[in-house]
Amino acid sequence: MRVPEPVLRIRQGVRRLRLPRTRRGQRRTFQAVVALTVLALAPATWMNATAGPRVHSVADAPAAPVAIVFGAGLWKGEPSPYLAHRLDAAAELYERGTVRAVLVTGDNSRRDYDEPDAMRGYLLRHGVPAHRIVSDYAGFDTWDSCSRAHRIFGVDRAVLVSQGFHIRRALALCGAAGVDSYGVAVAAKHDVTWAYGGVREIFAAGKASAEALLRPDPHFLGPREKGVTEVLR
């Protein structure tokens, strides 16, 4: 029976991937694998080393003028459970007097998807006054949110609110963007979403390292906003 051409190619590929037979070749292969592993994990190590000491709970978070809440998706127009937990923490920070304003930053890149307004509505229903909430409609990713918080809204110091698997990246990027920040790691159920978020952060660390080094403009910069300044005044 004739073996199909794709199968032959797979077999040839397997043969090419065989480990070297000599000890010297095996040692070099092992060293190359170790080096690649170290390079892959270096960004995540950098984030943990940079941001780890700045992670707190709601109860012991240092005071700051502003809490920054990052978007985490909507379900039928309302904050997802993960986003709702972040907003609950922000509302508690305001109630405790830890912060005086809340900057909600998320995606509003199309008319039928508006994270900031959904976040604002949730905070209003949970006791945060309207004049204490400022919305950033162009927080398309973590770097954009951090960069715009500093460059557009004039935030120099803040408490960041997110889940534990994301908060260290947010801290590292906000620090690179010019925001002196501490983070509140919101507890989250260890479900499929949590597992996905943890795995995603490993790959996102490389992108974050490049953003912290190169400090690119956000996708949308726009004019300076006075919302945070007016709230704090």
Could you please describe the fold and organization of this structure?
By secondary structure, the protein is an alpha/beta fold. It is 52% helix and 15% strand. It contains eight helices and eight strands. The protein has a six-stranded parallel sheet, sandwiched between helices. Strands 3-4 form a two-stranded antiparallel ribbon. Strand 3 and strand 4 form a beta hairpin. The longest helix is centred in the N-terminal third of the chain and has 29 residues. The radius of gyration is 22 Å and the shape is globular. About 4% of the residues have low confidence.
Fold blueprint:
Elements: H1 5-16, H2 23-51, E1 55-56, E2 66-70, E3 74-75, E4 78-79, H3 81-96, E5 101-105, H4 115-125, E6 133-136, H5 142-151, E7 157-163, H6 164-177, E8 180-186, H7 192-214, H8 227-232
Parallel strand pairs: 1-8, 2-5, 2-7, 5-6, 7-8
Antiparallel strand pairs: 3-4
Properties at a glance:
233 residues; two-stranded antiparallel ribbon; 15% strand
In brief, what are we looking at here?
With 233 residues, the chain is an alpha/beta fold. It has helices at residues 5-16, 23-51, 81-96, 115-125, 142-151, 164-177, 192-214, 227-232, and strands at 55-56, 66-70, 74-75, 78-79, 101-105, 133-136, 157-163, 180-186. The protein has eight helices and eight strands, in the order ααββββαβαβαβαβαα.
